[in-house]
Write a structure and sequence with these properties.
The protein is of the alpha/beta class. The protein contains 13 helices and 11 strands.
Length: about 400
């Protein structure tokens, strides 16, 4: 159950954000703004998104409030524009042109609020040959070259979770763009449109690799480089009980500690001799297979060998370091990552659980002074809800 008061914690306290409901990177970006203290009002559609989970468990909707608006109803756009007129930021994740056709595009919103930062979250961007095509994380990262960097040669690239494209290349770049544009708006009184495309952000993340490629320090093939599994002292190894250990012993002194603790000190010279990397990999793999994950964790505990156990999602919150820092928190019976990063003067918190669709209409209508939100949705002659195609979420 969400709280019934205007948020007031974190460095973005006082910032008002309207989120037009979608899936994936848009909701995560709005959650991050909410975690930082912004008053985020999520405008849910009747019936919810096609790929939505149980709203009571959707952590990306924490620290928000929800109203339900049918944007295809005669008065639907006006309700959103009333919110936009009182907001600092609006976030939408429709395909290019959809918000304009619905009457809530940048021009419509800026006519009501010239200072508004209008954040657009898509996979392909607002222009280009693929701009109007559907897609998901895996397709976006495929075209940027980042998916092709992952995995063993001779096998298809493995399917990663949607952290790299949707959230790192998408949500985080949208938030950076929105905050930069918000700074500009407060300095000049002029809002603007932020075009955050997953392909752009994911490509940007690979800047260091492109520099190494240009300098001849990176081969454009998988598992042939220092950081992509090609190096035997930067990778993962199976243990006797089927667990895994992660090794990142790149620097000489860390590498020396690593091989000494493995009992492979005689292979110290193999670090800089790539012709011996096959020999080193086999020896390291054999050592790790001789003991369990817990046993190896104990061996490397308290050392600078840069070795850690590979934990599952359910195990991670109980690791002593993460538990001591409060990296994860429990709110409403849901274990979830705590807000990040941390602030010395304006600490953040999980203030409320996932916003249930429409549960906060009365509070938002009062706090934002938008009384028409309390009118019967659609009014006389209410139109049919928007089709799945018109409001499709694949970015």
């Amino acid at each position: 159950m969400t709280t019934a008061h205007t948020p007031g914690h974190g460095p973005l306290t006082g910032v008002r954000v309207v989120e037009l409901a979608g899936i994936g990177p848009g909701p995560f970006a709005a959650m991050l703004l909410g975690d930082l203290g912004a008053d985020v009002v999520r405008v849910d559609r009747p019936g919810g998104p096609a790929l939505g989970i149980d709203p009571a468990h959707d952590v990306t909707n924490r620290n928000k409030r929800s109203v339900v608006v049918d944007l295809k109803a005669p008065d639907g756009p006006a309700r959103v524009l009333d919110l936009a007129a009182r907001a600092d930021v609006l976030i939408e994740g429709y395909r290019p042109g959809v918000a304009e056709r619905l009457g809530v595009g940048p021009a419509d919103c800026h006519a009501r609020n010239a200072r508004l930062v209008y954040g657009r979250m898509t996979g392909w961007g607002q222009d280009g040959p693929l701009a109007d095509r559907a897609g998901h994380d895996i397709a976006y990262i495929a075209l940027t070259g980042t998916l092709g960097m992952i995995g063993a040669p001779g096998t298809p690239p493995p399917v990663p979770a949607n952290l790299l494209g949707d959230y790192a290349g998408g949500s985080l770049y949208l938030v950076v763009g929105v905050l930069a544009a918000l700074h500009h708006a407060r300095a000049t009184g002029t809002g603007q449109v932020v075009d955050a495309a997953i392909v752009d952000g994911t490509a940007h993340l690979s800047a260091m690799i492109h520099g190494m490629l240009s300098a001849g320090g990176w081969q454009d093939r998988r598992a042939a480089n220092l950081l992509d599994g090609g190096c035997p002292y930067y990778g993962t190894y199976e243990t006797a009980d089927g667990g895994h250990m992660a090794v990142g012993a790149l620097e000489p002194r860390f590498y020396d500690a690593f091989v000494d603790l493995l009992g492979l000190g005689d292979l110290g010279g193999a670090r800089d001799d790539w012709t011996r990397w096959g020999e080193l990999r086999e020896a390291v793999a054999a050592r790790f297979k001789a003991r369990t994950r817990a046993e190896w964790t104990a061996v490397f505990e308290g050392t600078d060998a840069c070795v850690a156990p590979v934990l599952s999602l359910r195990e991670a919150p109980h690791h002593p370091h993460l538990a001591a820092r409060g990296t994860f928190t429990d709110h409403g019976g849901i274990t979830q990552p705590a807000p990040a990063p941390r602030f010395s003067a304006t600490p953040t918190a999980v203030r409320s659980g996932p916003a249930l669709p429409g549960a906060d209409t009365a509070d938002v209508a009062h706090d934002w002074d938008v009384p028409h939100l309390l009118d019967r949705p659609g009014g006389p002659g209410r139109a049919t809800p928007a089709s799945a195609t018109a409001l499709s979420d694949p970015h």
